[in-house]
Amino acid sequence: MIRDSTARAHLDVACHINVMSADAVPGHLSMALRSLVEAGYSRIVLPPLNPATVDDAALARVFAQHEIAPITIAGGQAGGADVSSEDPAERAAGAALLRSIVDLTASLGGDQMNGVPYGPFGPPSGPTTPAAFERSAREVGAVADYASEHGITMTFEVLNRYETSLVNTATQAVEYVEMSGSDHLRIHLDTFHMAVEEADISEAIRTAMPLLGYLELGQSGRGMLSTGAVDIPEVVRSALDDGYEGRWGVEAFSRSVLTDPVADMLAIWRAPYDDGIELAADAMRVIQRGWASSIAGRRAQRLSRGVSV
């Protein structure tokens, strides 16, 4: 029997490269989804969707047809809905919004919900108070338990200081989970943000490892994983050798494939790439290099050649 020694055969990888917009017609997704599956991706990360307007049944059929699973995103809280607020009504509205995205995830056939559920997204006006941190954690923990009851894993992304002041490091993320009181809430780390906030990316991953549900690979310039300041293959190798067995993500942004409002919100002023599918293929090649140098990857390659281990 020939054993597949490629990363795509061993790792569960999702792609978040804006191959669809929030108002995309399901029929327009087929070509992009087919290309992602052929490149080795098993999941696609969706942009923030409005549960009240999205045709979840039609989208679910498209994902099932292409045998690719969706991961939803909870956008930052705002407009009177904020789980970190002092106002009980605003906290309740924020939690209700998060539960509606959990319900949408289930309708789409997904089993994971990522995003920024803990508060507003955008340049913070000051530090987050301990009281707001605790309020947010308790509310999000309750939603994570609700999600688990529906077969969905809820994660929260650790962002850099320019996008939030609530949680910026792996250590803070672990504290947030502990404060939440939930046994189901999981951490989402992203190398783009870690490169800003962490002294050692691999050590940050080890810190979060027991609670790490999603490890996202993003370059310093938001473009191709093969170009930039972050040594992505080394991150992959180190995480695997340290025992990471969870899901992976690939994320990149380019002004050429985003609407202006979204690009402005994310501070994407340049176009580091024009072809999202080529970026996805490049990312898989980079991940393969990291996988091939890991203990598990080297063992798989020996087995594929029939070499005893």
| Overall 3D form | globular
How many H/I helices? 12
The strand count comes to: 8
Span of the ends, CA to CA:
16 Å
Mean pLDDT reading: 93
Structural class: alpha/beta
Widest sheet: strand ordering = 1-2-3-4-5-6-7-8
Biggest sheet: strands, sense, closure? Answer: 8 strands, parallel, barrel
> Radius of gyration, Cα only, in angstroms?
19 Å
Instruction: Sketch the topology as an H/E string, one letter per element.
Output: HEHEHEHEHEHEHHEHEHHH
Strand content: 5-15%
Low-confidence stretches: none
The helicity comes to 40-55%
Structure report:
By secondary structure, this protein is of the alpha/beta class. It is built from 12 helices and 8 strands. It starts with 6 loop residues before the first helix and ends in a 5-residue tail after the last helix. The mean pLDDT is 93. An 8-stranded parallel β-barrel has the order 1-2-3-4-5-6-7-8, surrounded by 5 helices. Helix content is 44%, strand content 12%. Helix 2 runs parallel beside helix 11, helix 4 runs parallel beside helix 5 and helix 9 packs across helix 11.
Summarize the structure.
With 309 residues, this protein is of the alpha/beta class.
Keywords:
309 residues; alpha/beta; eight-stranded parallel beta barrel; 12 helices; 8 strands; 44% helix; globular
